[in-house]
Specification:
alpha/beta; protein transport; membrane; transport; transmembrane helix; single chain; elongated
Length: 138
């Protein structure tokens, strides 16, 4: 009986199934991560009005802190104490270095006395690029 010779078999092409699986997993990963990034800016906050402001910066920030009308500090929709915010800001500063940035979204009725500890914690942690979210009066 003759044993088939593998050397003379024609090449049928590479199996693309594993690569397609990886591509689909990457697409799902980026869809989920972009959804989580957009979720922070959808928290219901009536931003303060500012007559003069820089145009919206589309560059991503390291962290977004939201202060709602109940004067709760929120990160990713989860309430957090100011004491727990400081280690998070230090971690961001260590991770991103001088490129670390912070976006602060506050409700218009929140007094500055609630916002100031967040800004102070960021300054102590070395996060100096702070963007305050406002809305245009128009």
């Amino acid at each position: 009986m003759k044993v088939p010779n593998q050397q003379h078999r024609p090449f049928t092409g590479a199996n693309m199934t594993p690569m397609i699986d990886v591509v689909f997993l990457l697409i799902i990963f980026f869809l989920v991560s972009s959804h989580l990034a957009r979720q922070e800016s959808r928290l219901p906050v009536e931003l303060p009005v500012a007559e003069s402001h820089a145009p919206l910066d589309l560059e991503p920030v390291s962290m977004t802190v939201t202060i709602n009308q109940d004067q709760q500090i929120l990160i990713g929709g989860t309430p957090i104490a100011i004491e727990a915010l400081r280690p998070l800001l230090l971690e961001i500063r260590n991770r991103d270095g001088s490129a670390a940035s912070l976006r602060v979204r506050t409700d218009a009725v929140v007094p500055y006395q609630v916002v100031e500890p967040v800004l102070h914690a960021a300054a102590i942690a070395g996060v100096l690029d702070i963007k305050l979210a406002v809305k245009d009066p128009r």
